[in-house]
Structures are given as structure tokens and as C-alpha cells.
Amino acid sequence: PPVIVWFREDLRLSDHPALQAAVATGHPLICLYVLDDETPALHPLGGASRWWLHGALADLRRTLGSHHGTLLTLKGSAETLVPQLAKETGAQSVYWHHRLHQKEREQDERIAIALKTQGTAFEGSWGTVLLDPAQVQTKEGRFYQVFTAFWKAFQAQDVPEPLRSPAGLSFYPLSESLLAQYRLDESTLLPTHPDWAAGLRASWEPGEKEAHEHLEDFVRHDCSRYGKGRDELSREGTSRLSPYLASGAISPRQIWAALQKKGAHDEGARIFLSEIGWREFAKYTLFHQARLPDTSLGQKFEKMPWRKSEKDLLAWQQGRTGVPIVDAGMRQLWKTGWMHNRARMIVGSFLTKHLLIDWREGEAWFRDTLVDADWASNAMNWQWVAGTGIDASPFFRIFNPTRQGVKFDPDGDYIRQWVPELKKLSGKDLFEPWNTKEHDLERAGITLGKTYPRPVVDLKEGRDRAMAAFRSL
Ligand code: FAD
């Protein structure tokens, strides 16, 4: 009988404990992916993530093909399809990696019960995080709510070494007719009309090999100056590993091991690993606090008088707020499916503070447009930026977009790249066109309100409004 490996957010062959366990049985494999849009409690994938998934599935299928195997992709409720596939093929067992959110774990439990009832075994292991999130606890047996304490306790533990790609794979022959009515038409993952993915195609190549190339490239060229380089908006000073991590083309343990090799004494490597630590902390928090994506963890913020303004939200989404550094970030996101971390903080602060719009609106837009959209990291960072989370930046820390721009995009290259209509402005004018002299605007070919918007909010008024709302709590 075959054994089933159920791929989820782990679309790779190397360092794949579930695959390794399945191969160890010596039985032929069925490699499965299920796109489950039918279970409402689970977060649906956004548009950019679907685009990425299309490439990641094709890559995994190619790799399996080089071992004379293939990938079966189905669409529907995993609760129905996984047990049904096991039954129809007489599979002996199903292998997967644990998921984090309570609703996902509950679904896995229901599937496990269904499998058990029909006599199919199952085995879960940890493959998407560095450590089992139940393993890192305070002395009192509670979970950590502050990153630095979490990270200290985490580092006292041993991270397992990554596994190699398994050799000698054998596959179970799948018949065309098997669950034919549930086959996923993978082309439906791609946009049709309009085709908004041209910039994504130009920016990214999903795949396991590409993930490792990014890692090697980063370790070789950018890692040692990461501490400073990660904040420079116009440089590619970061690893751009996030979409590969989100889809599981590379595992955090592989990154961990590669960086350990480089040496923990390298300051850049140490800071980089702590960012991998933030990813871990986000997953850990999602595991322990299921309300992270939906509810402000700082409870008083559930009473925050957020503004509802379709017009302002749309201007933010479309990169037409009239605040250049904000618009640059939002346009980079729309064009490439990714935004620099510093820009994410700037646009996040602007939305939740200057515009006083609920962080969940920002979270939802990012979830739909980021190729690295991650349920845990996205929600955790939005709550951090908005100041509503645990261990978050305090609400009254309101980024001044101009100052942020001057500091992290000193030559204005980031703004010029993404907001080209302003490219003839220089100095502070580039960051504050509304304060620019009329004849300087004219010379640069800019008419405010026509070729570039006036700011949707006066920065000082927006700031005062946010502080008043905060004080009202
Ligand atoms: P690098 O700087 O090279 O970092 C390496 C890896 O560390 C990243 O790939 C990522 O996995 C992890 N990492 C780095 N910073 C963070 C962080 N602050 N929190 C958690 N993990 C981190 N990251 C996502 O992966 N998915 C999201 O949906 C997401 N949403 C965000 C929303 C907001 C409002 C903000 C402020 C940040 C968000 N981040 C998210 C975190 C961060 O911006 C991205 O992980 C990072 O920019 C990805 O680029 P990189 O791979 O080059 O990062």
C-alpha cells in the first residue's frame, strides 16, 4: 500500500521531516496538495499568494518529476478529500507538518479522527518552525509575551539540524480518474483579466533552488552589513527570503544552520537570526493566541474609535495619499508583491495613526497583495505597528513620514523609483511636495492635485487626531 505525504506550507523536498518519515516506511509515495477554500475558519489565500503558489506547485512537481514521481493537486474540503484519497488508494498512513492556528489544528484533529476510523494511520511533525511552540515556556509553564524574553529562552534550546533530501524515492502510480472531479485546475490560481501579475513575474521566481540561491547570495554579499543595510530603502540589503519561507520552499532550520556556519560572532548574522526569531515569535504567538489575526491583543484597543473612510483607504491602497514615502511603499507592494520592511512600518503607521484606520484593513490588504503573506507575521506586525499588540511599539510612537524618508531614503532614490512623477524634485521637496514653492513644482512639471495628489491628511492634524483618539480610551 502507498503512504501519503500531504504538502501544505512546506513545498520542498529537503529538510522535510514528514516526507522523510514517509520515505522511511519503504512504501511508495503519493504526494498531495489540497487547496481548501471551503473551510471558512481557515484564512483564504490572497491573490499574490495564489500567484506564488502556482509557481511553487509547478516547481515541486518538476522536482518530484526528476525522481519519476508527481504531485497530485486537489481542490475542496481537506476534511473530505484526504480521508477519501487514503481510502481509495488503500493508503497505510498520511504524513504532514503541524500547523499553528487553533482552527487549523482542530481541522487536523478532525481529519486524524476520520483517518483513524477508517484504519489509516497518520503522523504529524514540526517542519515549518524552528521549534515546537509548546517547548518554549516560562518557569511557571506559561508562554512568553515579550520577544526578548522569548528569544533568550529560545536560544537556550537546541534547534534540530536540517535533513537532507531523501534518496531513493518510489512513487505509487496514480490513475487519471482518481478523484478526477476534485483535481485543481492550477491555471485558476493566476490572474486573468486584468493581468496584474506582470511585475510579480519580473521580480520573482518561486522554487526550492531559487530559495537557496537567495540564501547563499545574502550570506555572501549582504549579511555582514545587514544591521545597517536592512534599513536602507533603496538598496537590496535584505535576503528577500520571505515568500520562499511563506510557501516553505526553504525551511527556517536550513537558514538557521547556514547562518550558524557563518559564525554567531558576525553582528549582521546575529541580527538576521533575530529577525528569523521574530518570524518564530509570530508563529509561536499565533499558536498560543488564536485571536492574534482578528483581535487587538491590547484589550483597550477594541474600543478604539477607528475611522471608516473608503476614500482614504483606497488612496492608501493605490499609493495616492500624496505623501511620497507612503506612496512609494504602496506602489512597490502593488507592482512587485513585496515591500521593504522599513516601508511596511511607515505605511502601517500612516494608515493606523495619521488616517486612524483600523489595522485589520491594512492586514487584509497586505494579505491579498504580498507574495510573502503569512497569517502570523502579518497580523503580529500589524499589531506591532498599530501599537495594539503584545510587545508592540506604543501607539503614541507615530512615525513622521518625512523624517523617516530623509533618514532611510536620504538620496530619495526609493521615492524616485516608485513615484516617478516626482523624480525632478530634490532635497526635502521630494519628501514634502506640499511645502514646495510653486515655481519649483512648475519647473519639475508637477501640478499638485493633478499630476500628483495633495496629501489626504495634514500630517499634524492627523497626528493630533490619533493622539486624541488614543487618549479617549
Ligand atoms: P530579511 O530582512 O532578509 O529577514 C529574513 C527573514 O526574517 C524574513 O524573510 C522573514 O521571514 C523574517 N522576518 C524579518 N523581519 C520580520 C518581522 N518583522 N516579523 C516577522 N518575521 C520577520 N513578513 C512576512 O513574512 N509575511 C507578512 O505577511 C509580513 N507582514 C508584515 C506586515 C507589516 C505591517 C510589517 C511591518 C512587517 C511584515 N512582515 C511580514 C515582516 C517583514 O517586513 C518581512 O518579513 C520582510 O520585509 C521580508 O523581507 P526579507 O525576506 O528580505 O527580510
Give a quick precis of the structure:
The chain has helices at residues 17-24, 47-66, 78-89, 102-117, 147-155, 198-203, 208-222, 226-229, 242-247, 252-262, 267-288, 310-317, 324-336, 341-354, 359-369, 375-386, 401-408, 413-418, 438-443, 459-471, and strands spanning 3-7, 29-35, 71-75, 93-97, 121-125. It is mostly helical.
Notes on the structure:
Belongs to the DNA photolyase family. Strands 3-2-1-4-5 form a five-stranded parallel β-sheet, sandwiched between helices. The protein starts with a strand and ends with a helix. It is built from 20 helices and five strands. By secondary structure, it is mainly alpha-helical. The longest helix is centred in the middle third of the chain and has 22 residues, at 267-288. It has helices at 17-24, 47-66, 78-89, 102-117, 147-155, 198-203, 208-222, 226-229, 242-247, 252-262, 267-288, 310-317, 324-336, 341-354, 359-369, 375-386, 401-408, 413-418, 438-443, 459-471; strands at residues 3-7, 29-35, 71-75, 93-97, 121-125. Strand 2, helix 2 and strand 3 form a beta-alpha-beta unit. The model has no long low-confidence stretch (mean pLDDT 96). Bound molecules: flavin-adenine dinucleotide. Flavin-adenine dinucleotide is lined by residues 230, 238-242, 245-246, 275-276, 278-279, 282, 341, 344-345, 348, 366, 370, 372-374, 377-378, 381-382, 385.
